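Suppose a colleague, Dr. K., hands you the sequence of a protein chain of 164 amino acids and asks what its three-dimensional shape might be. Before reaching for any lab equipment, you can write down a predicted structure in token form. Begin with the sequence itself:
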Amino acid sequence: MNEIFPDGDGTLRLCRLDASWARRAADFDARIFRDEAWPFDVWQEMLSNPDLSFFAYVRPAEGMQTHGDIVALGGISNGDEPEILTLGVEQSHRGQGLGAQLLDFLIAQAQKNMNATHITLEVRADNEEALALYTSRGFTPCVNRHRHQEKGIRKAQISLIKKL
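The predicted structure, expressed as tokens, is then:
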């Protein structure tokens, strides 16, 4: 992939992830989403699934590293009803437009399927920063809201949709 994003520490590259990225993706996810992060084995399975696509902005690899460090990661399901599965940006890189650029890229991936009429995602109702980003890109709340239980705490989720 040739998409680049200028960064104060160098140039970030947009990479499509495969199963060899599972450890780095799981570590990134744990830093960003803490208790809500997907474990390593889930990342291995998802990155091996041809019906899912994950992309990340990464710093160039250094020394003996095979892969660079992930600073932003997003995923989408492929098919006629695409869904954004995850989108996260390292705290140190927030507010620079990186999340918006990655979201736009994921939306463009969904638009490649001529049968897809919309794209969806779910977000925690109290995540105002993410909600602002999604609504700025044309996502609107769906009628359905649901709650899920996590470690004894009920958290409101909002489903959002965007017409393609």
